[in-house]
């Protein structure tokens, strides 16, 4: 991760575990990272690496920059840095971001071994995955199992815990929820609903319209979103709005302009929503992060997908 804001004496640490598991055609290699805080230095600076890096926010707020997009971070957010992509994590305003990270890689080779749930999960992840998600359940419950242990048997248990932790995180970013009896892909209704939100989050979102786009009842839509996304419709809409707002603020648009663009007419309401997600008002965020060049000279991508 290259973190410079890590405390000199972190309250906890993870055991140093590196393990390799073969599931049919896919080989998963995972490694523990560490706990990181962004109080002394609020950024880990732009960098890249040749493996996946997956992070879980334990507390605090910040911003995740990845390949030209900006994503809001808060407690319970799970996010991923792809191999070879420049990324950065910051917490300039609040300096209270605390997270834990892991790294992994996936190798694909021909194999006659029968398909397994793990093999299908890794294949789904490689086909398509999100960069950011809200953790379903409490992934932090795995962390005590990954503490350093003196006994060899305990270290073996830690390797099993590492595998379970990685698979749980990968499944969320691949759009696959934990189901009894194995991993199950998100139903088409959920994908249709999320696709509709990506296109319409800037306007007034009505539950009935989303349900109609997903071809399900409103009650079924609420149940599916809770089960497969772990979030309400309102939360999913607000995450998209904040993600888009961050990028527009960085481009130099005024708070009022950004508020209207994401479908919120009242700048005060928008400011309260922004502060709740990022820990600071949008004007303060803009003053700290926006480039000094005029908006017309800014060449950043104006679209941010937070899904």
Question: How is this structure best described in words?
Answer:
The chain has helices at residues 117-127, 152-173, 188-200, 207-214, 218-228, 233-250, 255-261, 267-278, 282-289; strands at 18-23, 26-37, 52-59, 62-66, 69-73, 77-81, 87-90, 98-108, 132-134, 176-179, 182-185. By secondary structure, it is an alpha+beta fold. The chain folds into two domains: 18-184, Jelly Rolls (Sandwich); 187-307, Orthogonal Bundle (Arc Repressor Mutant, subunit A). The protein has a six-stranded antiparallel β-sheet. A three-stranded antiparallel β-sheet has the order 5-4-7. The chain has a two-stranded antiparallel ribbon with strand order 10-11. α1 crosses α2 and α3 (188-200) crosses α4 (207-214). The radius of gyration is 20 Å and the shape is globular. Residues 3-10, 178-185 and 292-307 have low confidence and may be disordered.
Spans of 5+ residues with little confidence (pLDDT < 50)?
3-10, 178-185, 292-307
Radius of gyration, in Å, reads 20 Å
From N to C, what is the helix and strand string?
A: EEEEEEEEHEHEEHHHHHHH
Number of DSSP helical runs: 9
What is the arithmetic mean of pLDDT?
80
Strand content: 15-25%
